[in-house]
Write a structure and sequence with these properties.
Number of strands: 4
CATH topology: Alpha-Beta Plaits
CATH class: Alpha Beta
InterPro entries: Dimeric_a/b-barrel
Strand order of the largest sheet: 2-3-1-4
Radius of gyration: 15 Å
Number of helices: 2
Protein name: DUF4286 family protein
Organism: Mesorhizobium zhangyense
Distance between the termini: 19 Å
Number of domains: 1
Helix content: 25-40%
Structural class: alpha+beta
């Protein structure tokens, strides 16, 4: 089976007043943990810009886009779920609990 490319998009916020701690954890701990999942090949992080076409505030301030290359998307998704919150993918109390995470496929 041929590998296909997907985008895993995650929108998050820091707990109020803990943005520095959140960003340090996300960039130095969480991204490497996620990149250790077989099939995830790249990660990029973004912060909401001050200028928007929609009225502010928007519900999420931070965006991570992960690239997945796999012939078995379910196994990659399952592995993320299996690792989340364990020593293999430590979660931070500086991350707000509400988030939006979705996997997209090319058209």
């Amino acid at each position: 089976m041929e590998k296909k490319a997907y985008k895993f998009v995650v929108l998050t916020n820091a707990v109020e007043g803990r943005d520095g701690e959140f960003n340090d954890w996300y960039s130095s701990t969480h991204v490497p943990d996620v990149l250790a999942v077989p099939g995830i090949v790249k990660a990029e992080r973004f912060e909401l810009a001050e200028v928007q076409r929609s009225a502010l505030p928007l519900p999420y301030r931070y965006l991570a886009i992960y690239e997945i290359e796999t012939d078995d998307l379910k196994s990659v998704s399952d592995e993320i779920g299996k690792r989340a919150g364990t020593d293999a993918m430590v979660l931070s109390s500086a991350m707000a609990l509400e988030k939006l995470a979705a996997i997209f496929k090319p058209l």
